[in-house]
């Protein structure tokens, strides 16, 4: 059955696009969240968005934040400009392996290659084994380069799936600094899907994501946020970032619990609109069940 959020403007392809080479964590996210779809690798996040926008893929998988490293650079700029809509989120537990050519031993490794985000998640292991880091374009691409080079002193930091795909040995597993290391991905579509609601047991609670700019009046942000507090709407994320390279032009990204048609959320958004110069809903979607498991780990 075709996903209702997939636009009829293009024939369904059965593909979901992700950034990176086969074996990337985006690939794992696709297999986890949409196992019935073909994962389509793309060189950049922009290419991933364009694959969905052009109809080459039905959906796009984009990482937005990691529990160890923080938010993924450029994604918050890309989301509002993409023309796509968030229809789901999925959390992927990031297990990092040290991958090397067959026959290499851990004591042979003097340098390791990976994406800068992953390198920052394994600092303790790399320091302990005196391994120098090399920044690669992405995780699975680094594994591919290590496999092609065939040098026993060089390893890649990537997923076990990447090691399997490129024929590399796993010299060490789960070497990430934090055992709750998790990346949140958003699934994007050409068409929004606002029809879903929580079930009778209260599961599948809904989230709404949006971006806004406040009006140039005193205490505008404080006043804009007041509507969520007075209406009892929980805001799970609020981040600011510059736009157009200007220090005085600030855009905010927010996630809240609830659906825009829920009366408390509708009242809070109405109040927000009064204090904003622009407001764009990026998506309305169910919370991933793994989201609830992140709270105790984050509090520790």
Total separate domains: 3
Write down the overall mean pLDDT: 89
CATH fourth-tier homologous superfamily of the largest domain:
Periplasmic binding protein-like II
**How many β-strand stretches?**
15
Q: Describe it for me?
A:
The protein has 300 residues and is an alpha/beta fold. Helices cover 29% and strands 33% of the residues. The protein has helices at residues 25-33, 45-54, 75-82, 116-119, 123-128, 139-149, 160-166, 220-230, 263-274, 291-299, and strands at residues 15-19, 38-42, 59-66, 70-71, 85-93, 97-100, 111-114, 132-135, 154-158, 169-172, 182-189, 206-214, 235-243, 246-257, 276-286. Strands 1, 2, 3, 4, 5 and 11 form a 6-stranded mixed beta sheet that branches. Strands 8-7-9-6-10 form a 5-stranded mixed beta sheet. A 4-stranded antiparallel beta sheet has the order 13-14-12-15, sandwiched between helices. A hairpin with a 2-residue loop joins strand 13 (235-243) and strand 14 (246-257). Helix 8 packs antiparallel against helix 9. The chain starts with 14 loop residues before the first strand and ends with a helix. Residues 296-300 have low confidence and may be disordered.
């Amino acid at each position: 059955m075709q996903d209702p959020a997939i636009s009829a403007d293009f024939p369904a392809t059965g593909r979901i696009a992700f950034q990176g080479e086969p074996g990337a964590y985006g690939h794992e996210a696709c297999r986890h969240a949409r196992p019935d779809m073909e994962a389509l690798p793309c060189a950049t996040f922009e290419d991933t968005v364009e694959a969905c926008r052009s109809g080459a893929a039905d959906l796009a998988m984009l990482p937005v934040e990691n529990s160890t490293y923080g938010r993924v650079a450029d994604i918050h700029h890309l989301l509002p400009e993409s023309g796509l809509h968030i229809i789901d989120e999925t959390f992927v537990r990031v297990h990092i392996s040290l991958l090397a050519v067959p026959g290499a031993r851990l004591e042979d490794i003097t340098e390791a290659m990976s994406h800068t985000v992953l390198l920052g998640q394994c600092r303790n292991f790399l320091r302990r084994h005196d391994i120098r880091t090399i920044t690669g374009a992405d995780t699975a691409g680094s594994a591919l380069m290590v496999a092609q080079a065939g040098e026993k002193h060089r390893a890649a930091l990537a997923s076990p799936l990447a090691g399997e795909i490129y024929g590399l040995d796993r010299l060490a597993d789960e070497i990430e600094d934090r055992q709750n290391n998790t990346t949140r991905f958003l699934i994007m579509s050409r068409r929004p899907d606002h029809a879903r609601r929580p079930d009778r047991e209260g599961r599948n609670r809904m989230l709404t994501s949006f971006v806004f700019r406040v009006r140039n009046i005193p205490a505008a942000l404080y006043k804009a946020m007041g509507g969520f507090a007075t209406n009892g709407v929980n805001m799970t994320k609020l981040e600011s970032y510059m736009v157009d390279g200007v220090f005085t032009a600030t855009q905010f990204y927010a996630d809240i619990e609830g659906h825009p048609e829920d009366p408390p959320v509708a009242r809070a958004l109405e109040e927000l609109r009064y204090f904003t110069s622009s407001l764009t809903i990026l998506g309305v979607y169910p919370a991933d069940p793994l989201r609830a498991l992140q709270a105790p780990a984050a509090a520790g």
